[in-house]
Structures are given as structure tokens and as C-alpha cells.
Amino acid sequence: MNATEPRRRWWPTVNATGPRRRWWPRSVRARTALAAASAAAVILAGIGWWVHHDVYRESTGIAQGQTQKQFLALVDQLEKGAVPGRRSTVPYEIVATGRRAAVAYGGGMEEFDPGTRHVLPAPPKAELPAPPDEGPNWGYTTRPVRLPARPDSAPGDRFGKDGGTYQVMYDDVRADELSSDTVAALGVAADAQLRVYVVVLPHAAEDIAGTITEATDRLLLRAGLVSLVLISAAAYFTVRIALRPVEAIRVLTASVTASDPRERVTIPAAGHEITALATTLNTTLQRLDDAAAQQRRFVADAAHELRSPLTTLLASMEVALAYPERTDWPAAATTAARQTRRLQALAEDLLLLARLDTRTPIAGPETVDLTALASRLAEQYPLTERPLTLTCDSTAPAHVQGNPDEYERLLRNLIDNAARHAAHRIQITVRNQDAWVVLTVHDDGPGVPTEDAERIFERFVRLDDARSRDHGGTGLGLAIARDLAHRHRGTLTLTPRTLGACFQLRLPQAPTSAGK
Q1: Phi, psi of 247 (to 5 degrees)
Q2: Is 218 exposed, middle or buried (0-12, 13-18, 19+ CB in 10 A)?
Q3: How many H helices and E strands in the chain?
Q4: CA of 256: how far to CAs of 268, 294, 423, in Å?
Q5: How far apart are CA 515 and CA 441, in angstroms?
Q6: What is the per-residue pLDDT across 442-476, written as a single tens digit (0 to 9) for each?
Q7: Do residues 138 and 74 make contact, with C-beta atoms less than 8 angstroms apart?
């Protein structure tokens, strides 16, 4: 691209978690509103479909009920001696035995010209029912009847060129049940059987149902659209209000830095999920603050520990160089070598702690016999400074899995700590207890106060501040021992004793030895 070429603008297509759709909103409020509107649309569509079909079914039933009501009214008029008129909302026809033309008709049946010959069949005399014992017979029958074809039908007629098959309701009335005047008015014989037909037009019921359902559908559509807008707006503003504490948490945590992680989040009064989030975040910030403070303290302690031997080494070298003729060079070299060894040991301890802090897994764990290792260290441990008795008591091999060098470093640190404080004797015991291997290192020294039982495992902690640093260690031995125990899925604790200090190491047995 040269300087004159216009810069093209591109929409971002990826984010931290992968590709992002351009049409999908980024805001949680908008996403929630869209999801709520989508869910509401599906639910409202289902409700609308159910209401539409239910209204259609009810409307069809109402239309059929109206047809039945008019049919019963025709039968009632006939039995009361009244001749129904031709104006009717439903097609009907009254036929009689022994009569060619229809007795009465209307509601569209005139399209078939029943005045010449009735359209629907007359009841045969064989089907004449017996006179009822009491009251009128209100029973009726419904069955399909095929109407004759009409080649001269007009487009607006209720029936097409081919009349088709329609459901009809019919009921029979005996002429001898009517008065003589009614029989004469109807023009039938005294012993004739009359049959009242009403044709059920499906399109009439559908027209009524369609009109009702169409109005219902329009109402449901308007109500659904308004509901979607209201639901979306309610979801949007509800989530916006609910996320205000989250925004406050975000603003506050943005000010937290690695050098100053002392900020804390205000915990909302309501006990909801955001309260749990704020509490967890405060706990995390506290852990970060503790870790940062521990790191600063560790760096300061390490610098202090390194400065002491370096100062001693530098001072001895400067004095020797200033007065070479009066310097005891073998003694100066011995002092320099001692301080150098101390620096080397401190550097190795610091490197080991840094490696343990990385939580790297043990590469190729081996099966180690702690009984044999403890016995070998007890036999080879140098006790030249003062007379001490170091014994190892064990009853059987104790197999564990891990790094042999790290196990040796762990036991050696425990023995070194006991040797610095023991008065006369140190005892190591190794036992197999259930699925654990328990090793203890007990000395007969002054012991450890109860309030310092956990503090002694911290880095650079030495309870006897007046003790010489050259003989008292760096304060990293027990911290390294506990980290090595945790690294091998075990524990290292100080168990209470009336005399001296007793450190207990618990490690899981190796699978091969646990089943023996």
C-alpha cells in the first residue's frame, strides 16, 4: 500500500475466543434481550398456533350448533302445524311419502327446483317408526347424502354444477300426529310420513370460523409484537441494572497492579451471584497480595542472607590485601572457603525453592525404600562437632514413589535440623500404617513452642535470632522439606512431644507394596 492509496476499513472478525459473527451483538444486555425476544417469539408463536386452532374448532362447533338449532326449530314448527318459509340461513327440504314435489324448502334448495321433484329422498314406509308412547320424538340422524348434478348452476349458487356429497340432518314426523288442518295445509295424505332435511354446508361453518379466527389472528399478532418489544426492553434494562455491580467490580479491578494489589471490591448487600463473585474476587486479590508480600519478603531475606557471607568474605579479603605481610593466609583462605560454601549452599537452596514453586511434575518417579535410605543416612551422617547418637528404628521396608535425590534431600534437611538442636540423641523411626508410610525424626533438644509449630516451616524463619548464622543455617531447610513432602503427595508436620521436637512425615505407599 502506498501513501496515496486510501486506507481500507475492515470489521473485526475474531476475538479472544475465536471468530465472531458480525450480526451478533457484543453487549451482554443486547444478547440477553435478543435471547429473551427469541424465546418469547417461539412461545408466543406456539400459543398463537394453539389459540388459532382452538378458536377455529370452537367456531366450527358454534356454526354446527346453529345449524342444529335451526333444524330443531323447523321440526318444531312442523309439529306445531306451521309451514316453514323459504327464507332460511341453512338449506332445508321437507319431503313426504306419496308426494312427488317437496312439501317445503328454502335456504338455497330452490336452486334444484324442488317444486317439481324433491331433491332428497322421501322416507320409505318400511322405515316408519311406531308412534311414541309419550311426548315428541326429538331424535335426529346425520348422514352423508350426494346431491344431484346441476348443469345450469350459476357462479353465485351455494352448490356447484356437481352438488357433491354433504352431511344432512333429518328427522321423521308422522302425519297422523298432526292436526287435520295442518295435514291439509301441507298437502299430504293422512297416513303419510314426513321427513325434514337440513343440509350442513361446510363452507358456511368455515366462513364463520374463518372470520372469527382472522380477527383473533390480527389481535394476537398485534399483542405478540407489543409483547416482544416489552419483553426485550424489560430484559435489556433488567440485565443492565443487574450488571451495574459487575461494572463497578471491573472498574475497581482495573486499578489493581502487581506492585500494589491492595484494592478490594465492595460486596453488594443482596446475597446473589454477584455477591459470591465479589467475595471470590476479594479472596483472590488477598491471595495475590499475600503472594506479592511473600515474594518481597523472600527477596529481602535472600538479599540479607547473601549479604552476610559476602560482607564477611569481602572484609577478610580486604584486610588480607591491606596487610599482606601480617595476614595468616591459610586462615584467610579457610574463612573464604567457608563463606563460599555457605553462599553455594544458599544459592542451591534458592534454586531448589524456585523449582519447587513452579510445580513441575516428577519426571519418571521411582520406587524408593525409605527404610534403607534412612538407615544409610544414619550410618553416614557426620557427627564430628559434638557427641550425638543417631539411630534408625524400622521393622520392614517402606516403599514410596518419587525422586530418590529429593527424598534424600528431605531426610537430610530433617536430620540437619535435629542435629543443630539435639542435646544427646536423634532417633529416626519408619513404619507402615495402612496405606501410608510414616517417618519421624525426634531429637531431645529444647523443642518448639506451640505457637511456632507452623511458623518454623516458613522460609528464612529461625526462632533463635541470637544464634550464630554460620552454625544456625539459613532457615530454608524445613521449608524445602515441607515443599518436597507436598510435591510427593505427602505431609510434614510437627507433632507435640514433652521432650524435644518430633517431625512426622506421611507419604502414600507405592502401589506395588500396598497390595503385599
Answers
A1: -65, -40
A2: exposed
A3: 11, 14
A4: 20, 18, 51
A5: 27
A6: 999 888 888 888 888 887 776 654 344 445 566 78
A7: no
C-alpha cell at 119: 331433491
Based on C-alpha coordinates, what's the Rg of the chain?
Answer: 53
Most confident stretch, 17-26, 150-159, 392-401? 392-401
What is the distance, to the nearest Å, from the Cα of residue 328 to the centroid of all Cα atoms in its chain? 77
Cell numbers placing 158: 351455494
- DSSP SS3 for 138: coil
> Residue type at 4?
T
Stated pTM of the model: 0.50
Please state, in angstroms and rounded to a whole number, the distance separating the CA atoms of residues 502 and 495. Answer: 6
Average of pLDDT values for 139-153?
76
Query: How confident is the model over 74-119, as pLDDT tens digits?
Result: 888 877 777 787 787 788 888 888 888 888 888 878 778 777 788 8
DSSP string, 343-374: HHHHHHHHHHHHHHHTTPPPSS-EEEEHHHHH
Helix 404-421 to helix 477-487 angle (10° resolution) is 150
- Is the torsion defined by CA of 155, 157, 158, 162 positive or negative? negative
Position of cell 540479607? 304
Coil/strand/helix, residue 194: strand
CA 268/CA 244 separation, integer angstroms: 11
Q: Is the dihedral of CA 234, 236, 237, 242 positive or negative?
A: positive
Cα–Cα distances (Å) from 62 to 206, 207, 327, in that order, read 11, 12, 126
What pLDDT is stored for residue 8 in this prediction?
45
pLDDT tens, position by position, 232-264: 888 888 887 777 777 777 777 777 776 666 677
